[in-house]
Automatic annotation (TrEMBL):
Belongs to the TMEM134/TMEM230 family. Pfam families: TMEM_230_134. InterPro entries: TMEM230, TMEM_230/134. The lineage of its organism: Eukaryota, Metazoa, Chordata, Craniata, Vertebrata. The chain crosses the membrane at residues 46-69, 81-102. GO terms for biological process: synaptic vesicle transport. The keyword Transmembrane helix applies. It comes from Parambassis ranga (Indian glassy fish). PANTHER family: C20ORF30 PROTEIN, TRANSMEMBRANE PROTEIN 230. Involved in trafficking and recycling of synaptic vesicles. This is Transmembrane protein 230. It comes from the Eukaryota. Its main location: cytoplasm.
Length: 121
């Protein structure tokens, strides 16, 4: 068998044309593990608040719609619009944060539990 450069490298023989450089003697103290991100902490309180806001807003919207349609009789029908407006204002942040929590739980790209405010907990 004829010995060629490819056979020498495959057999583990050294190649004299390869130049090696020494590693620096002084370490800068960094390790690879410190640059890896730990899994984010799930903000359970913020998600519970989002569920509460979502459900409360949904109930206010439904109740306001029933009042506006006349299914529930009221003495002052002009007070039904603020119920719907408050329901929408409560529903929107709850829905928004629940959507982020759902996508983060499913692992969609671009969504993380870090995007949900945790109120300093």
């Amino acid at each position: 068998m004829k010995v060629t450069r490819g056979n020498m490298l495959a057999a583990g023989m050294s190649n004299n044309k390869v130049k090696y450089s020494r590693l620096a003697a002084d370490e800068d103290g960094y390790i690879d593990l410190q640059f890896k991100r730990s899994p984010p902490k799930v903000p359970y309180k913020a998600i519970a608040l989002a569920i509460f806001l979502f459900l409360t807003g949904s109930l206010l919207i439904i109740f306001g719609a029933l009042l506006l349609a006349g299914i529930i009789k009221v003495e002052h029908p002009d007070r039904t619009i603020p119920v719907i407006i408050i329901g929408i204002l409560v529903f929107l942040p709850g829905f928004y944060h629940l959507r982020i929590a759902y996508y983060a739980a499913k692992g969609y790209r671009g969504y993380s539990y870090d995007d949900i405010p945790d109120f300093g907990d």
